[in-house]
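Repro case for the chain-ordering regression, as requested:
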Amino acid sequence: MRLGLLYSGGKDSTLAALLLREFYDVTLVTAHFGITDDWEHARETAETTGFDFERLELDPGVATEAVDRIREDGFPRNGIQLVHQHALETVAANGFDAVADGTRRDDRVPTVSRAQAQSLEDRHGVDYIAPLSGFGRNAVDRLVDATLDVTVGPSEEITRADYEAELRALIADREGERALEQWFPAHEQTHVTGVR
Amino acid sequence: MRLGLLYSGGKDSTLAALLLREFYDVTLVTAHFGITDDWEHARETAETTGFDFERLELDPGVATEAVDRIREDGFPRNGIQLVHQHALETVAANGFDAVADGTRRDDRVPTVSRAQAQSLEDRHGVDYIAPLSGFGRNAVDRLVDATLDVTVGPSEEITRADYEAELRALIADREGERALEQWFPAHEQTHVTGVR
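-- result from build under test --
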């Protein structure tokens, strides 16, 4: 069965790929808006880890909509959620038997409810799989320590290919760096450099 | 990391074991009340599939409490949920680094909420993992078809070692066969006979 996994090059989506590879023919799919070249970092990690890789172009209108939402809210959660749902819809319409992401049990964003999962499956005739949704934060950290080599640092310094990077670039361009600092609380990101 | 997986010999808990075996030192743990010898079927399946096996004795008072609850409700859901929570507490107190079960995304019973999972982890210093909670019914069925040999049949004919079998035996003994038919709607169970 061909499975498309939404992939950022970070620890969660890489661990999700390792969990699924014995059961599915996994392709790492990095969805992007064409705003930055950050997707290339995900391709490098995919090559390092030996998985197939595909780049998937998203609707730039959704990036604009997400930025508008983030400006309105003053925080990024709902905007990122919007992009994640659009990315899942896009990969589900792309011919895979199953689609997956790296969302964890304890994630606040993005989240995919049972009803949303069922709806995605019914409309596209695919299985939606969230292999980390039964793992808490500590369990994920312990598995990552045991299986992956990672670089950790603040969001603005780490090269990876999640939607946040492109939304940040779009906001910096349209609203200035001050808006970025105001709307995106500082947090750590990871970039996977290898599988042990 | 040593992981204890609540195990019935059915397809869900066997698939959960296969998903976890690359990352954990998995022991299949069959929890029972000492009412029937059904746990032996789980041991046979564990031997067939090559996993370590442990039998774990539960508090018989919880079986009585569950049967009282089922009689009161007229359906088995809450009684089975009660036993599952007790079994998770018991295995979590048994020295494993992580505990797991075979609950799926679309299961109505047993279920373990995020708050319950967190509480179990905090009180016992373990990780709680539900490896199938990110898989829907169809995804599980497709993986089972691809990886396991199973026997399917009505609950009363299939030899497996879930709590239902022992609760049924206790109810048949205390309340008679009529009560069983009344409280437990007919449904299919599976017993795993091998890994492909």
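Ordering looks correct now. Chain A has a mean pLDDT of 92.
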